[in-house]
Amino acid sequence: MSENESAPRLARLWLPTLDRFSLTARVQETLKRIFARPPLWLFVLLGAAALAVLVSIGVRVYSPTYGLTRLIVIGSEFNRRGIAVYQATPKYIDPYPPHRWGFDGQQYAQIALDPLLRDPRIKTAIDNPPYRARRILLPVLAWLGGLGRPFWILNVYATLNFVFWFGFAVMMTFLFRPHGWAGLAGFAAMLLTCGVIESMWASLTDFPGFNLMTLAVLAGGSGGAGVLALAALTRETSLFGLVGLWDFKPPWRETIRRNLRLSLIAAVPMGLWFAYLAWRLHMASPVDADNLDWPLRGIMGKLGEFSVVAVHGHIRWHRWYLELYKNPELHALLTIIALLTQCIYVVTHRVWENRFWRIGMLFVPFFLCIGAPAWESHFTVTRHALPITLAFNLLLAIRPGRAWVVWFLLGNSFVPYGIYQFYNYLGANRVSPPPPAEYQLVNPSSQTAAVAVRFDQGWSDLEWNGRQGWRWVTQPEANVLITNPAQQPLEAELSFVAHSVTPRSLEIKVRGIRVWAGSVAGAAVIVRTSRFLLPPGATRVNLRTAEPLTRPDLTDDRLVSFRLQNLQLRLIAPPAGGTTLP
């Protein structure tokens, strides 16, 4: 076989061009070798650049008092209810208002202080003990690495995702380097893809579990099954990696026997640990079905939410080129485009003998069934889809064609924003933004500018991020008071964006007259009332739902109805002849 025939397909498109230039044979040979397969130092250089980003972030978040615990995202609520040693250990507690509940990593960090779950307070200290304790490997590694000292344990736990990243970079080099320049591009895309970033910024279990599953498939055999057992103790869905270890070829009796042996090696340790949890906690271990729904329903809900924000929100469409990698709503759209592109490519480019394709293909229906709660923060979905992202980039590198660039750019279009957000979110001097205005008067005039809106009964405190604010309805009925200080009545119209975790009915009344009624589904809905009269003085707007209150998510134990944001009050002076509005 000639050198041109053995070169990757993408490189062969460039090799004939070299013959047009008057180059010495030695120079041509060197260039052909470079075009055929990028040198190892390029992979090292890209890995070093990604490592420089991670090291700079580590330097920015480090504190002599708290170490690297800022990477865990600990909220004040779970610190307050934590076990005694957890409360007493110095750690960074995020003062940023939306994060007072923290994030999932804080649950596993607390388990790391008591990995055998002997403290009876652990049942109330974390949000869902049977569910969280199933993922015991990282807490155990943190306890061992911290030598049993609480402050060290929390800091070791905070760095575990970064430690796993080194092994990940080596595995990606091994997987992608044989596939030329397309492999180099896939390698670069994988190093800091959004799923990796999402797991690292909050010390989650997804990336380490994915890492171990990848290593298990590379190792193969009984050793690979043993590594997969560790992956399953990190995240249960890692057991899907069995399809990458199993054989699917005759003789079938021997194949079935071998596959069963590998399955037992991978699954038995997890089963034994689950049995210990049932004995220790005396609590049923739930099936994580809350995040699953009918195929594409969660994606369609997120697209509906994006359409609401696109029309009613804060996207500066006239400067879309600047918003593209700074606006979370636009990035949510890019995430949907990228991950659906990956799914379509994996499904339509079947390579049964490729073990990573088999795993990615198994994760495609799982990804498509992820429900609205996980899509609430679209970054969450990217870590669930990591096996699909690897299968996509690897298959694309193995068999690049003329449309390679289009597939690659679409499938990885969400990567730059993730890196941008990772770097900025963990900035050393981040200051919480001031609370935003809770409402907006539309087309105010000298006659209407003094009208005031106040959230009366049934509301949570104001919550906000860098871009917008919102309140949760915490009772079946909530009231908004609108005060008209003028001597003349006004006509008014309310509009806002409502978001409910579960579908529920909503009815809005003014002085007992209904001005809006409808359903608030699992995604954002624009609510716009009919006009009503504002006489001088205070007018009470009543919002009522019939369905029971629910928790916003697993980490928040409040009971709420729906969330209201972007409240706008449109005021119109009535005609001279008066009005018959309610």
How would you characterize the overall build of this protein?
Strands 1, 3, 4, 6, 9, 10 and 12 form a 7-stranded mixed beta sheet that branches. The model is unreliable at 1-7 (pLDDT under 50). The protein folds into 3 domains: 3-36, no CATH class; 40-285 and 296-425, no CATH class; 439-572, Galactose-binding domain-like (Jelly Rolls, Sandwich). It is built from 27 helices and 12 strands. By secondary structure, it is of the alpha+beta class. The chain is globular.
Alpha plus pi helix count: 27
- Shape verdict: globular
Distance between the termini: 86 Å
Largest sheet: 7 strands, mixed
**Strand content bin:** 5-15%
Given as residue ranges, the uncertain stretches (5+ residues, pLDDT < 50) are 1-7
- Give the % helix: 40-55%
Structural class: alpha+beta
Q: Topology, please?
A:
Elements: H1 3-6, H2 9-12, H3 15-18, H4 25-36, H5 40-61, H6 76-80, H7 84-88, H8 105-112, H9 122-125, H10 129-133, H11 137-145, H12 150-176, H13 180-191, H14 194-201, H15 206-219, H16 221-232, H17 242-245, H18 252-281, H19 297-312, H20 320-323, H21 328-348, H22 355-368, H23 372-375, H24 378-384, H25 386-398, H26 404-411, H27 415-425, E1 439-442, E2 452-455, E3 463-464, E4 469-472, E5 477-484, E6 490-499, E7 504-510, E8 513-520, E9 525-528, E10 532-534, E11 537-544, E12 563-572
Parallel strand pairs: 1-12
Antiparallel strand pairs: 2-5, 3-4, 4-12, 5-11, 6-9, 6-10, 6-12, 7-8, 7-11
